[in-house]
Amino acid sequence: MGIEFTDSDKSTSAVLADVIASIGNNEHVTLRTILTQMGENGLLLLCALLSLPFLFPVSIPGVSTVFGAGIVLIGIAIMMNSLPWLPARIADRKLESRKLVPVLERGLAIVTRVNRYLRPRMLGLTGSVLMNRFNGFVLTGAGLLLMAPLGFVPFSNTLPGVAILLMSVGISQRDGAVVAGGYVMVVLTIVYMAVLAFLAVSAGQTLYELGN
After folding, report:
1. Domain count of the fold of the chain
2. How far apart are CA 112 and CA 138, in angstroms?
3. Contact (CB, 8 A) for 72 and 136
4. 151 three-state secondary structure
5. What pLDDT is recorded for position 17?
6. Residue 155 backbone class (left: φ over 0; alpha: ψ -120 to 50; beta: rest)
7. If phi over 0 gives left and psi between -120 and 50 gives alpha, with beta otherwise, what is residue 20?
8. CA 181 from centre of chain
9. Distance of CA 11 to the CA centre of its chain
10. How far is CA 165 from CA 37, 45, 50, 100, 185, in A?
11. Which of 13, 15, 63, 181 would suit a FRET pair with 172, their CA atoms being 20 to 30 Å apart?
């Protein structure tokens, strides 16, 4: 059974602070509890982290397929407004609070610094359930573009990687300007790959004609 969550207009830092406070003096906490509380914000934070290895002209071969698949699943989960099904042994595994809280607090410090440059704006792109589902669809598409077997081609992973990072951060912080930047990068990725396909076909036709 999936873990359901509701939409939240809180920033990722505020949600993460709430999670830390809710753990309190409890000796253990489960992954299910954390994911349920963080909801989309937690998924989007994970999505942003998965995009980081691709912010270079050429990425490590094979990584884009694995990480891209994870991003696609996150995008689908946002569209469906429910986290994917997780085995009970993973979702309900008890984690030691005394070890987990310091890690979360370090993450909170980083997220808080990033938040200084983001703010809710252009809410037409992030402020409704319909747009949130659409953004999940675009994020899924960007993940599929990242999975394309073109890792050896410069920027083929970088462009969708940047798009995913912008979409993830923009949606979580309700910053429509950043989300719009993600849209632009998705379009540029599609155009770039279309040009590569056109050049490949043209080269193939030229070689065929020369051979005849």
Report:
1. 1
2. 26
3. no
4. coil
5. 81
6. left
7. alpha
8. 14
9. 16
10. 22, 9, 9, 25, 10
11. 63
Looking up tokens 């051979």, which residue turns up? 211
CB 168 within 8 A of CB 114: no
C-alpha R_g of the chain: 20
pTM for the structure as a whole: 0.77
Strands 3-4 and 82-83: antiparallel
- The residue range of the domain holding 107 is 3-211
CA angle 206, 211, 212 (to 5 degrees): 100
What's the CA gap between 175 and 178, in Å, rounded? 6
Euclidean distance between CA atoms 175 and 8, whole angstroms:
14
Q: Which of 157, 162, 159 is nearest to 61 (CA)?
A: 157
Residue-wise pLDDT for 73-112, tens only, equals: 888 888 887 776 666 776 677 878 887 778 777 767 777 7
Q: What is the DSSP string of 93-134?
A: -EEEHHHHHHHHHHHHHHHHHHHTT---B-GGGTSSHHHHHH
With beta carbons less than 8 A apart as the criterion, state whether 170 and 47 touch: no
